[in-house]
Amino acid sequence: MSNDSLYTLEQRQQAFTQLREVKSELAARGWFPATSGNLSVRVGDFAGDRFAFAVTSSGKDKSKHTSEDYLIVDGSGRPIEATTLKPSAETLIHCEIYRLTGCGAVFHVHTVFNNIVSELYAEQGSVPFQGVELIKAFNIWEENARIEVPILPNYTDIPRIAALVEERIDKSVPGIVLRNHGIYAWGTNVFEAKRHLEAFEFLFEYAYRWKALNL
Ligand SMILES: CSCCC(=O)C(=O)COP(=O)(O)O
Ligand SMILES: [Zn+2]
């Protein structure tokens, strides 16, 4: 075990492999334009309030694979292995999502649809969806279910955004949007986080097209 038994080297390697695979798939969709976006997956279990996760390093071209793509950070977002790599500039938001939800993976992408829809609904503070089948991807099975995806302000100061996550997060909706910036989606593992991210992106495109049709 390394780093006070938080995770094993096998878990570390597995996390890097998982990030590499999902990064490839999301990059193929064009979901990381201009080095935007970041991904993380927890390594090992929570030990009380301590945990660690693998996160993409900051400013990289996420459509490429290099030996400098990922590093391990602690629950405060600080690297816990000797490295010259910088964790994603948005790591503190990942930290808050892990801390508040106990999830296993967090994915963040910038897309045209999530940006436009966040702007369309900014004054309301959340994006509402009702009765769309893909809401079931969030394990919400009630008839004609309604959800609201919280929209947070896009401050330049990331700690200021992170400080808002706790009051805005809805535990039954595994995503938050930053206004005119992008979505964070999470899940118990990589498979579930990707399913949630895909469902949110479907819903944002749906919302955009629906609004456009009704102009
Ligand atoms: C070039 S996009 C601006 C930063 C951002 O929003 C993002 O998602 C990527 O930041 P990172 O530090 O994770 O590369
Ligand atoms: Zn971003």
Account of the 3D structure:
With about 220 residues, this protein is α+β, with helices and mostly antiparallel strands. It has one domain: Class II aldolase/adducin N-terminal domain (L-fuculose-1-phosphate Aldolase), CATH 3.40.225.10. The chain is about 35% helix and about 25% strand. The protein is built from 5 helices and 8 strands, in the order H-E-E-E-H-E-H-E-E-H-E-E-H. It has helices at about 10-30, 90-100, 110-120, 160-170, 190-215, and strands spanning about 40-45, 50-55, 70-75, 105-110, 125-130, 145-150, 175-180, 180-185. Helix 4 (about 160-170) links the parallel strand 6 (about 145-150) and strand 7 (about 175-180). The protein is globular. The N and C termini lie far apart (about 60 Å). Ligand L4RZE5RM binds next to loops. The site of ligand L4RZE5RM has 12 residues, from loops. Pathway: Amino-acid biosynthesis; L-methionine biosynthesis via salvage pathway; L-methionine from S-methyl-5-thio-alpha-D-ribose 1-phosphate: step 2/6. One of its GO terms (molecular function) is methylthioribulose 1-phosphate dehydratase activity. It is an enzyme of class 4 (lyase).
